[in-house]
Specification:
By secondary structure, the chain is mainly alpha-helical. It has one domain. The protein contains 18 helices and no strands.
Length: 419
């Protein structure tokens, strides 16, 4: 296997941070592997007992935090690649086009073959739009990034202020769970293909239909439902995820350009400030969210969601600061962070591995346990996947400097090893 950037040229802090982010996205994603979308989307106001507690933990500590770090790191990576290209006299644009084209291919295959919640395709598309911005000045990058990040926050704030919301929340098209409807939708999942396609195209997928397809349906029908789910989610991605991710990419470039996150030993004071301000503001804001998120009134739910987005930005900065404080030692990160660093060095492979493990557990081509877990019991799945990835990545990293999918990605980008 070819070698990536030699260890002495890597930045251990970024590997550890990437590993933390890689593991941190799983608690947010796993309900969408294991449950119908309408069930996974349920808020705390619709859950009870252990499921409600699990949702509170996920929203308080994980939701939006780790995709924030990943998006930030993507921007840092664009800057690092620009520096490497300049050092070798290679066209950054040409390398990025090949690299992002390969990433888009991986993302499309991930959606079709494994899971509709893929983020790689969005990263690739936004990378095509924004990678040339790496030439901008730091102030320009920072201002543009902050404005983009504010778009979804302002949107949900406007929805919270909208005067005509009903007082009983938003009704779900899949809310009818009568025995007759459940039987009808379950039968539709196994009906002849023309009837199946009609059910898919009729609107929001009913939980019973989705459960029947993933639990014991054919792979072809699962592909159809995955693509339909991804297309339906584009509205959410377009207004909430895309501007936030794009803005964070630019902020990553802005922070990397003067070398802040690239020289952690020299940035200890900045990391301490990030941890103090991020957690100092983020934790109270997150606590304030819970005055509104469980409310039955839609307007107040949107206000809580606005606070959640703001709190997640502060807390992600706090997490970054904490990891930086741990890693910013002259002798390098402490030994106990090595498994996290190993996960970070193979983050692309580990991202797809999470999808493989979860779909093997929940879909019909594996154990077929889709719909049989609740939000609380899914934490057992999270713990198992975390333990497996930390152990396997640690062993793998002793022998190889990059993951198997990273190797393929590099070959598609350069056509050969680039040392």
């Amino acid at each position: 296997m070819e070698q990536a950037t030699p260890p002495h040229r890597r930045i251990p802090f970024l590997d550890v941070l990437r590993g933390v982010a890689m593991l941190g996205i799983l608690p947010v994603n796993v309900p969408y592997f294991a449950l119908p979308v309408a069930v996974a989307d349920k808020g705390v106001d619709e859950l009870r007992g252990g499921a409600a507690l699990a949702a509170v933990v996920t929203d308080s500590l994980f939701s939006f935090r780790f995709i924030t770090l990943f998006s930030f790191l993507f921007g840092v990576g664009v800057l690092l690649l620009k520096q490497r290209c300049d050092a070798r006299g290679v066209s950054h644009a040409a390398v990025m086009v090949r690299r992002l084209g390969a990433l888009a291919l991986f993302g499309a295959l991930h959606i079709v073959l494994l899971w509709s919640g893929d983020i790689l395709l969005i990263y690739a598309v936004l990378g095509f739009v924004f990678f040339a911005c790496v030439r901008w000045r730091v102030v320009t990058l920072g201002c543009a990034g902050a404005l983009l990040v504010m778009i979804p926050i302002l949107l949900t704030a406007a929805l919270a202020a909208w005067p005509s919301w009903p007082t009983d929340g938003i009704a779900s098209a899949s809310g009818d769970m009568s025995e007759e409807t459940v039987a009808k939708m379950t039968a539709a999942a196994h009906a002849p293909m023309n009837e199946f396609l009609h059910a898919v195209s009729s609107g929001e997928l009913h939980p019973s239909f989705e459960t029947a397809v993933y639990r014991d349906g054919t792979f072809t029908r699962q592909v159809i439902v995955r693509v339909a789910t991804w297309l339906a989610d584009l509205k959410f991605y377009g207004v909430i995820v895309v501007p936030r991710v794009a803005g964070l990419m630019l902020l990553g470039m802005a922070c990397a350009k003067p070398g802040w996150v690239l020289r952690p030993v020299e940035s200890r004071r900045a990391f301490r400030r990030a941890a103090a301000w991020g957690l100092g503001a983020g934790v109270p804001l997150q606590a304030l969210c819970w005055l509104y998120l469980p409310d039955s009134e839609t307007r107040l739910q949107y206000f809580g969601y606005t606070l959640l987005q703001i709190a997640s930005l502060f807390m992600a900065a706090g997490y970054l600061g904490l990891v930086g404080m741990i890693c910013a030692r002259a002798s390098g990160p402490p030994a106990w962070t090595r498994p996290l660093s190993a996960v970070g060095r193979t983050a692309f492979s580990n991202y797809i591995l999470q999808s493989l493990m979860c779909t093997a557990l929940f879909y019909s081509w594996g154990l077929g346990l889709f719909g049989r877990f609740d939000r609380a019991s899914l934490w057992g799945v999270v713990a198992g996947v975390w333990a497996f990835q930390l152990a396997v990545s640690s062993v793998y990293a002793r022998h190889f400097n990059m993951g198997p999918l990273e190797t393929v990605w590099r070959r598609l980008t350069y056509g050969r090893a680039w040392r």
